[in-house]
Design brief:
The structure holds two protein chains of two kinds. Chain A starts with 7 loop residues before the first helix and ends with a helix. The longest helix of chain A is centred in the middle third of the chain and has 34 residues. By secondary structure, chain A is mainly alpha-helical. In chain A, strands 1-2 form a two-stranded antiparallel sheet. Chain A is globular and about 75 Å long. Helix content of chain A is about 75%, strand content about 5%. By secondary structure, chain B is mainly α. In chain B, about 75% of the residues lie in helices and about 5% in strands. Chain B has a two-stranded antiparallel ribbon. Chain B is globular and about 100 Å long. In chain B, about 55% of the residues are buried. Classes of the chains: A mainly alpha, B mainly alpha. Chains A and B meet through helix 5, helix 6, helix 7, helix 13 and helix 15 of A and strand 1, helix 6, helix 7, helix 28 and helix 29 of B.
Amino acid sequence: MDVSSWPILSVLILLPAAGAVFIFVVLQQNEFLSKLLAFLISVETVVLAVFLFRRFDPADGEMQFVEKMDWIPEFGASYHVGVDGISLFMVMITTVMVTLAMLSSWDQKGRGQALFYGFLLLLEAGLIGIFLAMDLLLFYVFWEVMLIPMYFLIGVWGGANRRYATLKLIIYTMGASLLMLVAILALYFYHHAQVGEYTFDITKLYGTPIPPEVLLPMALAFFVAFAVKSPLFPFHTWLTDAHAEAPVSGAVDITGLLIKTGAYALLRFLLPLFPEFSMSFAPIVVAMALIANLYGAMLAAAQNDLKRLIAYASVSHVGLVILGIFVFNVQGIDGAVFMMVSIALCSGGLFMVVGMIYKRSGTKDISQLGGLWKDMPVLAGFFMFFVVASVGLPGLSNFVGEFLIFVGAFKVSVLYGVVAAFVMVLTAVYLLWMFWRVMLEKAPERATPWRDLSMAETVTLTIPAIIVVVIGVYPKILLDRIEPSALKLLGQVKKETAQMDDLGRWKSLRLVERLKEVKRDKPWR
Amino acid sequence: MVEGREIFNLLWLVPAIPLFGALFNCLLGYRAGNLVVSIVGCGSIGLSFLLSLCIFRVFYGLPVEDRQIELCLFQWIVSGDFQAPLDLLLDPLSMVMITMVSGVSFLIHVYSVGYMANDKCFARYFFYLNLFVFFMLTLVLAGNFLVLYIGWEGVGLCSYLLISFWYERRSAAAAGLKAFVVTRFGDFFFALGIILIFLQFGSLHFCSVFANPGEVIGVSMATWIALLIFVGAVGKSAQVPLHTWLPDAMEAPTPVSALIHAATMVTAGVYLVARCYPIFELSPFSLQVVAIVGLLTAFISATVALVHTDIKKILAFSTISQLGHMFLALGVGAPGAAIFHLLTHAFAKALLFLGSGAVIHALNDEMDIRKMGGLRRYIPATFFTFTIGALAMSGVPGLAGFFSKDAILYATFVNGGPLMWALIVITASMTGFYTFRIIFVAFFGVKRWDVHLHAPGKAMILPLVLLALLAITGGYMGVPHVLGGSDRISEFLSPVFGNAEVHGSLGSSVEGVALAAEEGGVVEGEAAEGAPQGTETAEGIAGVWETGIQMSEKSLEMLLMLVSAVMALGGIGLAFYFYVYSGGRDVPTRLSEKFRVAYSIFTNGWYFDALYKAVFVDPYMKLSTFFLKAVDVAVIDNIVRGVAGSLLSAGNILPGLQLGVVRWYATVMVLGAIIIILYI
């Protein structure tokens, strides 16, 4: 089939969106049919994503399957989507995780289940849109659209404290993205002023010369929006609340919260749009990332709520991802993208297990659990597996991402590498201690033993487990395709910064700049 | 049938067969029943062992210069200039290791069938054990650092799982966590070392890194890399100061202690340093560190073993001590001796652990030697094999431990100086003492137990007998030249270690004597305090120093051998005097009262655990709780709430926004989106 004749990317976005609309409008009352429809659509998107993967040319670092048409020509906004090695895997993991989300909440009871599935589909459309958009306005629309299902999914089906959590989520992320909207518009007008064309197309906006005095606030606005979404320390407190109050099945945790749109957007937008900012701001970002990395791991150790614990674990992992992005070398970026995929799977597996524990025990409080192994050896086995994967056992997926990020960090500075790598000790502490408190020792007396995993639950957990093993043993599937895009991105950043050196930079960051140059001149040898 | 060199293409099967066994026992073991599980469990290791033997045969037939076979399976992690394929390397060192690992594992698997027969989690046990063997074989067969790291972390995981095997016991859960975290701390340094090697050499491939490291890195960089790797080895091989996890690891079922915490996994650190020897050789400082850490570990843990009463913990401290011997050998430039001792120790210690397992099994999980006594009449087969293991362990002439320990002592004397030698000889006599203390207390004397005795079955006795045979004969692969042997093991390993041979330079020992003469008094004092047999030792050493200078190398070696044999026998004799001959006079109690300080230091394991709890564990937990309460909730969240609150109150000022900001914003946004879409 000719690719150009068949807009696969649009289908990937529109199919779940259409499904969501259909459920909202037609199937509202029919719980079973909407479940079935939603599930079939999510499976279909997985198939489409696999198809995309097979047609994807691994050697090409450019955008592929590009579709472009006018949207609002008067504004210069276009419907412009494309996929490269970085977004390919984000799309794939999104489709997989949404399918798992549907499976894991299959026997969830309560009001309006039909709508629940509708919102999940809408969320999927928003996520895929974010990963494919090549137009800033389009990207912004998807970025905000995603919040609507998030708001309802947590606000309606969430835990006891859900109002607080949703409020925090919305204010945090919307506040930050409003800043970004302003920056997008500023960029838009500066581009017009310099080039004479109104456009939101990022390929055209790359390299727009921006007066140094406004560059910093603009870039910061983008950075903060993405950092909040990622979330990067110290913008992380909404995430732990959102995870804690999200529906216990884990469906939202693994789709809306674990798929790291923020970190992706840093790579796709901040780095190429503001390369000189990114480079000179890097030491500060790296410091934040390293703090997040260790701080998240430390706080996870002090947690008594299972979901909060895993949320802090993911704060810690995101710290590593952002570190990988801001060391500006191929291992760092390869590792970061790989890690984003891996976090979704490993932490996602943990969230799903926690959901299954909750279904039986009615609690996420660690102090009320303990000794679950005896009744539920299969569940314990999966729990152990995902714990071990998150700890970074070589041969499973997290290790590949982690290790590449360590290598990338070490290349830039010994300090970065050493501090980042120390997390492997802390991760082992909080995860294994959690496992001990939940699974080991003697269980308190219970009238009826909790039943072990059902067949459906086993399948739900087996899927991510298999992927974790496959990409851990043979990461080349991903790395081969990520690398050309990562190299292209790096080339872009390095080229731009080389030019900007002649123009001079803003004063506030001179010092940092100089410090960094001193460091770069003295590689560790 | 595969003939000739083609058999090397099957090398990957050596670790893969146990992996298949593990997968089977994991996925189907629950339904399969104990018989099938044990056939798969033991059979897979047995096959792997047979394959190793076949490979050994072909390998031994190769000319010496061809004894390095690489097998690249596929590219694993490739990113930019970073490349780590999944490749295997078969050279004399890994050949010896896979044969030992698969052989000893096989025997222990067979033993486990008897030992674990009544356990509900039989399949799970064999799943872990097979998985462990897979990782261990991967570790020793690895062709680059990252593949080695797979095995390295994998054995750590299996060790954790098996220590916590009886998960309902709180102590088992705690011990597992401790073992994992402490070794992980070492692994952190090892990982840094690996990255540093990559950045320096641009490769992680053993053959290219070790080809000529001196041309790529200088002494200081070699020291950094060597020390980072060494910390990893210290963690895994339970050396001071990261040794505290191993005694606790005795929570694992006893066959596991024999396999993982005596014969194989804990020796991985020794293997690693031996493997990286070309880098260590570049840095004399790092070798000194290795030697000193090994020596201190050997001594400190031997003192603890003297006073412990738990049979498995005595053996655990003894293992730590023997691993210290191996590191000492590495540090004084005798990697061949280290590997030789690794092998003989594996046989002897696995035998001792399995024997103790038989005792524990017989007495319904009793581990306190004070509650045993007189067992030699009830379980004679165990008694005989255990005694053989103890003799081999103590270094009694003619058995396995003697030859390897002697090689280490000789190298220590020649390259480390008489002071180090003196300390290690004292340790050697302590080894004899504490091993035979077990025998005299548990197997002799009066019966101090009152349970129905479970005599070990055939599945348990057979491995004991086979290991006993190995413990007797294992030493003859390395009979030194002075005794008319040909030292085949170091000859076989020589291509790996290149010129790292013990150079019998008497000059260094003469210098050492002068130094030691000054400190002789100190040694004597310490020795007298540390162990009752000290005075005798110090005299013996003084004699050797005086005469040693004038003697030719050969007779020196003979004399050293004699001294170590006498010391070992002295230790055994002392144990006999204390626990059998002295009868009712109860010498040990009186001694422990007389040297109360030393006794309490020894019984508390030199207070390492208490120190770590006070310095690391408690502060860390306090700090993370503090961060959670004081920083995350009190500072960051309050700032956010303040900002949000002011926004909300600002919103309320505006008319028509009483719905709340969120809903208002959402509505506007949806409307806006619809308008934009409609606009198209």
